[in-house]
Every structure is written in C-alpha cells, then in structure tokens.
C-alpha cells in the first residue's frame, strides 16, 4: 500500500534544511507503485524520485510530488557458474551501509570498501557510488525499475546503465523516467582485497591477516575521522566531484603546485583531488552564517544548524568560483541540487 506523509522534506535530507514539496508518497512494494501510476496518471515533470536524501540539496519549496520506493528485503542467491560468487538481490529502500554489514555478517566480500556510504540501495546505481578504489559498477549485475510513464517493470544490465564517474543513464537520458525497485550485486566467498588507496593502505599497515571485516573497519575509521555524521552536523558527504583534467592541464598545475594531489585515470587524463584544491584555496573551515566548509574535510559542505538550501548553495558557488580563479579548474557538484526552477550549480 502507498502511505502519504506530510510534505515537509526536512527529515528526508541529510543536510537537514527546511524544504517542502507538494506531496510525499512512500511505497512498500512494486504493485503499489504500479497501481498508483495507473490511477493517478501523473505528468512525468510533476514527479521526483527520492532515495535516502543523502545526496540532495533542496532549495525551499519544490512544487513536485516526491515518490520513495521504500522496498525492503535482502536475498542471497548461490551461483553454480564455477566462480567464487554469490549474488545478492536487495530492495531499493534498504539502507546501503546496513547491506554492507549484512554481507559481512554472512561471510561475503566485495562491498567492504563502500562501508558507511549514506543513502539507500536504490540510489546507489544512479550515482555509481564509489570509495577507496572501488565503484558500484564493479559489483553490479542488474537492477529492476518501473517506468513512470507506463508502469512497466524493466531490467537494466550494467551496459544499459552506462556507468561513469558518479554517473549513469539515470542522471542523463533516463533522468526522472524510472523508479528503481531492486538491485542485484555480485559478492565473493573469498576476499579479493582492494587496499591500494593511500589512507586505507596506511590504516591497515601492520595487519598480517587481511579480512573483509578488517577492510570495512578501516574504511569506517577513516570516514569517521574526517567526515561529519549527518545526525550531528547536516551534510551530504562529498559536495563536489574530483575534476578530471587533461595531461597538459595536469602538468601546468603540477609545475605551479608540486604538492598537487592527483592520479592518472588513463587516456592522458588525471583526476585532481577537489578537497585539496578547496583547502589550497584557503577555504577549509570557511563559514558564512550557518553554512560552511567543514573544518576537517574541505570537500564537505555543512549546515551548522539553521542554514537554508540557498545559504549552502551560495557557499558552494563561492568555493567553485575561488577554485576556478586560482587553478583554472571548474568544480562540478556531486550532489543533486533541486528547487522550484530545477536550479543546478553550473
């Protein structure tokens, strides 16, 4: 059944900003979504699909109907393909970190590097979440989604999703056209560790026996040491993407700033640490009213208590402009910024 709840969005965004929508409806299963779509026949441009609210910046009143697929359930599927694999089929409303912990409790590996990422499972493929050298697409089998225009259920493979860096087809051509209901991921029975990432490698230094649980614990320790808990300080994690530049741009930056934090992503391009750029610009800890840049992690913008979405957006714009002025690199937001006019930081 569908349960209509009050239109306040403050409890549904980790920035904790005051925001409202026309209506917020939570669904517990696929038939409820299909029945509602059939009965209401809503215009696609009147809808917004809400996940866990951990990757959003909301600006005031948003004159849309917010839909949330709060579908639960975790099912493990043994594979008889001769490989060291188990698949896990997960409801879109399952909390991502709780899924990671459940897989570890069952003795499986594959998601440990993605520990403590906020949000729900249904939003993970949209963003192609990633951390500490691992991205969702490496573990992805398929997803199930309902087309809002027809109510039909459709399956998407990894190829169909067109994954990119913090990107997928659901942020481009299919944006706002489907609600994801289930995600299936590939796990391993035996650990294939990915601990090359600098801080993770340091955290595990001295460990003689690496386990998936130890990798997860190390990731959690690193994240908690530098990322604020949204329950204590409103934030959406990394606000900006790490920009990718050409080799020529990289060399120019490296000549000017030998301590530049960057690494090759192949094809003559380099990924620059956005947090380093912001900190080097002198903006780490910058604050304007109740909106600001976190004092420990410059990539995170925070709400110190009573900031509005517009306040945080203004700080984001100042950060973007300062980095562009000093380094000639344009930062792009990783979070979705949505308001009455569908305003995005550009």
TrEMBL record:
GO cellular component, one term: cytosol
SUPFAM superfamilies reported for this sequence: FAD-binding/transporter-associated domain-like (SSF56176), Uridine diphospho-N-Acetylenolpyruvylglucosamine reductase, MurB, C-terminal domain (SSF56194)
Pathway: Cell wall biogenesis; peptidoglycan biosynthesis
InterPro entries: FAD-bd_PCMH (IPR016166), FAD-bd_PCMH-like_sf (IPR036318), FAD-bd_PCMH_sub1 (IPR016167), FAD-bd_PCMH_sub2 (IPR016169), MurB (IPR003170), MurB_C (IPR011601), MurB_C_sf (IPR036635), Oxid_FAD_bind_N (IPR006094)
Co-factor(s): FAD
Catalytic activity of the protein: UDP-N-acetyl-alpha-D-muramate + NADP(+) = UDP-N-acetyl-3-O-(1-carboxyvinyl)-alpha-D-glucosamine + NADPH + H(+)
GO biological process, one term: regulation of cell shape
Localisation: Cytoplasm
Span of domain FAD-binding PCMH-type: 17-190
GO molecular function terms attached to this record: FAD binding; UDP-N-acetylmuramate dehydrogenase activity
Hydrolase is among the record's keywords: no
Pfam families: FAD_binding_4 (PF01565), MurB_C (PF02873)
Enzyme class, broadest EC rank: oxidoreductase
The enzyme's E.C. designation: 1.3.1.98
Keywords: Cell cycle, Cell division, Cell shape, Cell wall biogenesis/degradation, Cytoplasm, FAD, Flavoprotein, NADP, Oxidoreductase, Peptidoglycan synthesis
Active-site positions on this chain: 166, 238 (proton donor), 334
Function: Cell wall formation.
Family note: Belongs to the MurB family.
UniProt-recorded name of the protein: UDP-N-acetylenolpyruvoylglucosamine reductase
């Amino acid at each position: 059944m569908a349960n209509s709840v009050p239109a306040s969005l403050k409890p549904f965004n980790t920035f904790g900003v005051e925001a409202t929508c026309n209506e917020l409806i939570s669904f517990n299963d696929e038939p409820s979504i299909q029945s509602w779509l059939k009965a209401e026949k809503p215009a696609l441009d009147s809808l917004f699909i809400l996940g866990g609210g951990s990757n959003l910046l909301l600006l005031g009143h948003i004159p849309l109907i917010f839909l949330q697929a709060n579908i639960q359930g975790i099912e493990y599927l043994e594979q008889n393909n001769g490989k060291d694999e188990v698949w896990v089929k997960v409801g879109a409303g399952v909390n991502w970190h709780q899924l990671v912990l459940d897989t570890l409790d069952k003795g499986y590996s594959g998601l440990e590097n993605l520990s403590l990422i906020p949000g729900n499972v249904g939003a993970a493929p949209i963003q192609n979440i990633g951390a500490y050298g691992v991205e969702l697409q490496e573990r992805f089998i398929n997803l199930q989604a309902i087309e809002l225009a027809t109510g039909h259920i459709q399956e998407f493979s990894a190829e169909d999703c067109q994954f990119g860096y913090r990107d997928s087809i659901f942020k481009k051509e299919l944006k706002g056209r489907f609600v994801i209901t289930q995600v299936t991921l590939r796990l391993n029975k035996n650990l294939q560790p990915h601990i090359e990432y600098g801080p993770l490698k340091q955290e595990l230094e001295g460990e003689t026996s690496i386990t998936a649980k130890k990798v997860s614990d190390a990731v959690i320790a690193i994240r908690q040491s530098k990322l604020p808990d949204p329950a204590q300080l409103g934030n959406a994690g990394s606000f900006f993407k790490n920009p990718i530049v050409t080799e020529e741009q990289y060399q120019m930056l490296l000549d000017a700033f030998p301590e530049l934090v960057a690494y090759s992503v192949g094809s003559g391009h380099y990924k620059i640490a956005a947090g380093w750029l912001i900190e080097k610009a002198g903006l780490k800890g910058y604050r304007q009213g109740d909106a600001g840049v976190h004092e420990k992690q410059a990539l995170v913008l925070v709400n110190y208590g009573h900031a509005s979405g517009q306040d945080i957006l203004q700080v984001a714009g100042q950060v973007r402009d300062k980095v562009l002025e000093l380094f000639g690199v344009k930062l792009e937001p990783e979070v979705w910024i949505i308001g009455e006019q569908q305003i995005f930081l550009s």
